[in-house]
């Protein structure tokens, strides 16, 4: 996890020695771990993914979201199909309006209801309606064969397929919904979509998904994929279609109200909440790795390596349970200060 | 010419003062938590300046920031030394807030005290590296002196070639065992005392004046 100067905001990569002599930009000596979801540094997405290794799905997903968002905004999709690039770029355009706080909020919302293979399928579904053109939408409903792979891979599919849906009236509503979707498919996203969204219509939206969206819901992005995505963003096109939608999903929710739709679609909630505990643990680990002189076993419980504390030029003068810390840099000490 | 001579004399005086033998030595009082470091620092400061250095407590890690008392003049047996006394937080390898809960402390306070104590250890170690000219190492003579912390700290002090006196404190307590300390660190001079009761302080001051002069 990268570090960030709390004074000027300069970001240092994980393990950077540069910051140990104070921030080279502003001289500040207060730093914090830069959360993965804030994603303003171009290289942070892949760095985060590789350095945190076993980080939670949510973190990986949000990192992926950052990586893909950047890429989508640059509109470099040489290998994606028309449908996919349209979906992603539409999503990106819509998402570009969402501010950072919205994004954070909705990542949390998605994380709180996510089923591992389907982090944000309600979002996928609405994206499918909004982003596909009219023909796609109606074809998807008319021709169930359009997505056999998706239903096969989908672990909690029972109530979701129009064909398998036991509630026929709802299925027919779905069809009409799909048709109305096709009418408004020429960019009626955002304000128009939420009023039309009713619980039963979620299924219809899912029928409109394309292959890339199905793939996104059936897989969790891996660090390798993130690295490839990052490389691609920097100019070497090596992405697979599955990468593109897997990332944006949590963020895509930013353009839409974080309502109960994901719960309806998922059925079960795997991760009950997205509070800060996992991140705190992660931060502690990071702190321990960086400053093995002080190991934070638990809040209020520390193990100290006296030799390390003694050997270091800099030392921690302030610890915070939220993972922040203040170091005293060598320049502040020494003979010059002894006279005071 | 007269002006230059005056200037040279003036500079010479300043340089003499900077490097003279009378420059206060910074003496760090080190040791594990609850050994009586602050009680000793207060005893010395009160005896020679009339002021105390910091609050004492039976709860460990009462001292969580290093405290300094400057220009303490100690004179014994015709020898005089001016020292800055630095009372440091107790050094340990583990800090656990649960230890403080036993002293009727709320959990939040205990956790905070624990964090501050940890920062204090870091500060103490930094002072040891950068800012002390000599060490008074205080041990609770009722406890086993051979511990990881004591061995490591005394080893560091030796590696720095810092003059060190070992004070076997709390001799007023029944199960005090000064001999055990003297045997554990035979390479250093051990002085017994009770900082709380003021026992054997004459010898303490004599040793300080002799050792750190």
TrEMBL record, chain B:
Question: Which terms does the UniProt entry file under GO BP?
Answer: tRNA methylation; tRNA wobble uridine modification
Taxonomically, which superkingdom? Archaea
GO CC annotation, single: cytoplasm
Quote the SUPFAM superfamilies the UniProt record gives.
Answer: P-loop containing nucleoside triphosphate hydrolases (SSF52540)
* One term of GO molecular function: GTP binding
Q: Which Pfam families match?
A: MMR_HSR1
Per UniProt, residues of the G domain are 26-170
**Official protein name in the record:** GTP-binding protein
The organism encoding this protein is Haloferax marisrubri
């Amino acid at each position: 996890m990268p570090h960030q100067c709390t004074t000027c905001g300069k970001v240092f990569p994980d393990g950077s020695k540069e910051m140990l002599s104070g921030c080279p930009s502003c001289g500040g000596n207060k730093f914090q771990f830069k959360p993965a979801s804030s994603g303003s540094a171009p290289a942070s997405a892949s760095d985060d993914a590789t350095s945190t290794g076993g980080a939670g799905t949510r973190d990986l997903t949000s990192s992926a979201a950052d990586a893909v968002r950047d890429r989508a905004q640059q509109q470099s999709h040489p290998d994606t199909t028309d449908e996919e690039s349209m979906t992603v770029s539409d999503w990106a355009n819509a998402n570009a309006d969402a501010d950072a706080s919205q994004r954070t909020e909705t990542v949390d919302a998605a994380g709180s209801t996510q089923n591992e293979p389907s982090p944000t399928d309600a979002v996928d579904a609405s994206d499918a309606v909004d982003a596909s053109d009219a023909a796609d939408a109606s074809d998807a409903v008319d021709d169930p064969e359009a997505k056999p792979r998706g239903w096969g891979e989908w672990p909690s599919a029972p109530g979701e397929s129009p064909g398998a849906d036991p509630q026929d009236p709802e299925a027919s509503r779905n069809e009409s919904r799909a048709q109305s979707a096709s009418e408004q498919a020429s960019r009626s996203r955002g304000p128009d979509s939420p009023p039309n969204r009713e619980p039963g219509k979620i299924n219809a939206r899912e029928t409109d998904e394309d292959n890339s969206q199905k793939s996104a819901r059936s897989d969790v992005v891996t660090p390798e994929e993130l690295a490839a995505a990052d490389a691609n963003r920097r100019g070497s096109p090596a992405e697979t279609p599955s990468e593109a939608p897997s990332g944006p999903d949590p963020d895509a929710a930013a353009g839409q109200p974080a309502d109960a739709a994901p719960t309806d679609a998922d059925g079960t909630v795997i991760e009950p909440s997205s509070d800060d505990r996992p991140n705190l643990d992660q931060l502690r680990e990071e702190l321990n790795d960086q400053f093995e002189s002080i190991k934070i076993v638990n809040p209020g419980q520390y193990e100290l390596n006296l030799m390390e504390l003694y050997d270091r030029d800099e030392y921690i003068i302030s610890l915070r349970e939220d993972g922040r810390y203040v170091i005293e840099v060598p320049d502040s000490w020494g003979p010059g200060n002894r006279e005071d | 010419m007269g002006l230059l001579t005056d200037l040279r004399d003036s500079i010479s005086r300043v340089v003499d003062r900077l490097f003279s033998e009378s420059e206060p030595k910074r003496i760090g009082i080190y040791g594990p938590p609850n050994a009586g470091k602050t009680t000793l620092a207060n005893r010395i400061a009160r005896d020679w300046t009339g002021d105390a250095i910091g609050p004492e407590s039976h709860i460990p890690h009462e001292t969580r920031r290093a405290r300094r008392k400057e220009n303490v003049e100690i004179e014994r047996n015709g020898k005089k030394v001016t020292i800055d006394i630095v009372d440091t937080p107790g050094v340990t390898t583990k800090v656990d807030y649960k230890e403080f809960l036993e002293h009727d402390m709320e959990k939040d306070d205990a956790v905070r005290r624990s964090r501050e104590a940890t920062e204090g250890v870091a500060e103490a170690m930094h002072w040891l590296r950068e800012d002390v000219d000599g060490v008074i190492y205080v041990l609770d003579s009722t406890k086993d002196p051979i511990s990881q912390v004591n061995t490591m700290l005394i080893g560091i002090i030796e590696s720095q070639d810092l003059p060190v006196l070992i004070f076997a404190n709390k001799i007023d307590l029944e199960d005090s065992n000064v001999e055990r300390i003297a045997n554990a660190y035979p390479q250093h001079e051990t002085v017994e005392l009770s900082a709380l009761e003021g026992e054997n302080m004459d010898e303490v001051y004599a040793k300080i004046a002799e050792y750190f002069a």
